[in-house]
Write a structure and sequence with these properties.
By secondary structure, the chain is α/β, with parallel strands linked by helices. About 40% of the residues lie in helices and about 15% in strands. The chain has an eight-stranded parallel barrel with strand order 1-2-3-4-5-7-10-11, surrounded by five helices. α7 packs parallel to α9, α8 runs antiparallel to α9 and α14 runs parallel beside α15. The chain starts with 7 loop residues before the first strand and ends in a 6-residue tail after the last helix. About 50% of the residues are buried. Bound molecules: D-gluconic acid (GCO). The site of D-gluconic acid has 10 residues, from loops. The site of D-gluconic acid (GCO) has 10 residues, from loops.
Length: about 450
């Protein structure tokens, strides 16, 4: 059976990671701009100030995408570039940049997949309490309207927010990502709820004001458990690992973030284990959060294998000594693209779109001037073969957006990690298509038949 005819092949990036031009074009500051000024926040003192200079090189980048035959390009919009204060006055210069980028993509026959928010929160709103302010969902909805009014005559695929698990947990709880706070559980839960509400309100805005029929989703971390064997017991263990909340250690659990969005309720145990922290909620909040969506956006890279435990519990299977790892030391676990889609489709019943998947690799320019990244080719090949299995088993797969189109600023890891299909020489900005970019072009051309 394989991938369906209209399967969407693409690649993804995010504004702060590639754009640069951090202090240009009347852009307002965001929390990553500010945290990068703090010595020690990012490895080697790297910043996104210049990044891949995509702001100035977007035409060259779209030309490379065209050469690769990408059908879709997922990118995010810098909220503070468009609304320097987060709300209120629109910065036309900032909006124009996205206008031109969308035009360029459409002219190249590449479908724009727009993420409204990928972590670069406006600093002006952070100073007003950010996701802890009860008005924060309305601020996001106002921003969404500005974007939809301007781009929805050409953009018909939207994602509201990217990985709230990371920007809330790492940014507000653990302090390792911007804005770098270490708040207690009660505040983290409040910020989480407000960001989910912001998602719901943004979906309402897109549906109401879009100039064309459109598809909307959200890109969450898809935490996945691979069953060790094909027995029903191990399958149940995997489901349980993914969706049952058994303690207050639940801030990364799928069900806490996904159930309100897709099922309209918080898991009972999430509330039970956090009773003393549970945030105040409006009566209609869950109804707003639970907007109908068109696809299930899944960002997945690596995960665990589980088996049924003796006492009806779930056991995480220890990885074998010497197991395969990426440059970032993430385990290579291709089976997540088989089981993740299966379990998410079964529970939430939406077509699956892998919104991110890829790896960091120690790429370099070889003596022949090329980037021979065989490891990436093998990695993606293995993952995509597993993804194909999900299609063969009847899971509705919408597409695959590789992370990432370009090497870029990997948050707290700075430029130490290279995730791109295209190599970036940061001092000069020069781009080189890696071997994997040519290989991916063939995958796209054959709709995955060459895997
Ligand atoms: C993420 C991200 C990307 C990362 C990628 C690799 O959502 O974590 O969306 O910004 O760069 O996942 O770590």
């Amino acid at each position: 059976m394989g991938f369906k005819k209209d399967f969407v092949w693409g690649a993804a990036t995010a504004s702060y990671q590639i754009e640069g031009a951090a202090f240009e074009g009347e852009k307002g500051l965001n929390v990553w701009d500010v945290c990068c000024m703090q010595p020690g926040f990012v490895k080697d003192g790297d910043t996104g100030n210049v990044a891949c200079d995509h702001y100035h090189r977007f035409k060259e980048d779209v030309a490379i995408m065209k050469k690769m035959g990408l059908k879709a390009y997922r990118f995010s919009i810098s909220w503070s570039r468009v609304l320097p204060e987060g709300v209120g006055k629109v910065n036309e210069e900032g909006l124009d940049f996205y206008d031109k980028l969308v035009d360029e993509l459409v002219a190249a026959g590449i479908e724009p997949y727009v993420t409204l928010f990928h972590w670069d929160y406006p600093d002006a709103l952070f100073r007003k309490g950010s996701w802890l302010n009860p008005d924060s969902p309305k601020w996001f909805a106002e921003y969404a309207k500005v974007i939809v009014d301007r781009l929805s005559d050409r953009v018909t695929h939207w994602m509201t927010i990217n990985e709230p698990q990371c920007y809330i947990n790492l940014g507000y709880g653990e302090g390792t990502h911007a804005p770098g706070l270490k708040l207690n559980r009660g505040y983290v839960l409040q910020a989480a709820h407000n960001t989910l509400l912001a998602h719901g309100m943004a979906v309402q805005v897109i549906r109401k004001y879009s100039k064309k029929p459109c598809e909307i989703g959200v890109a969450l971390v898809g935490g996945i458990a691979i069953p060790e064997t094909d027995t029903e017991a191990d399958y149940n263990a995997a489901r349980s690992y993914m969706f049952d909340i058994k303690s207050d250690n639940m801030m990364w659990s799928d069900a806490f973030w996904m159930d309100p969005i897709y099922l309209g309720k918080y898991p009972e145990n999430a509330i039970k284990f956090n009773e003393k922290w549970w945030p105040k909620m409006g009566q209609d909040d869950l109804k707003i959060i639970n907007q109908p969506l068109d696809f299930f956006g899944m960002n997945s890279y690596h995960d665990v294998t589980v088996r049924a435990g003796k006492d009806g519990g779930v056991e995480v299977v220890k990885k074998k000594p010497g197991y395969a790892r990426t440059a970032m030391h993430w385990a290579v676990t291709p089976e997540i693209l088989h089981y993740g889609p299966k379990f998410f489709y079964e529970r939430y019943k939406l077509p699956i779109l892998v919104t991110e998947n890829g790896l960091s690799n120690t790429d370099t320019i070889f003596l022949d001037g090329k980037v021979h990244d065989n490891y990436r080719i093998d990695f993606l090949n293995k993952y995509l073969l597993e993804y194909k299995k999900a299609a063969d088993e009847g899971v509705d797969l919408k597409g695959y957006l590789q992370w990432s189109f370009l090497d870029n600023f990997e948050w707290a890891e700075g430029y130490n990690e290279r995730f791109g299909l295209v190599y970036v020489d940061y001092p000069t900005g020069e781009r080189t298509m890696k071997d994997s970019a040519y290989w991916y072009a063939d995958v796209i051309k054959t709709n995955g038949e060459n895997l």
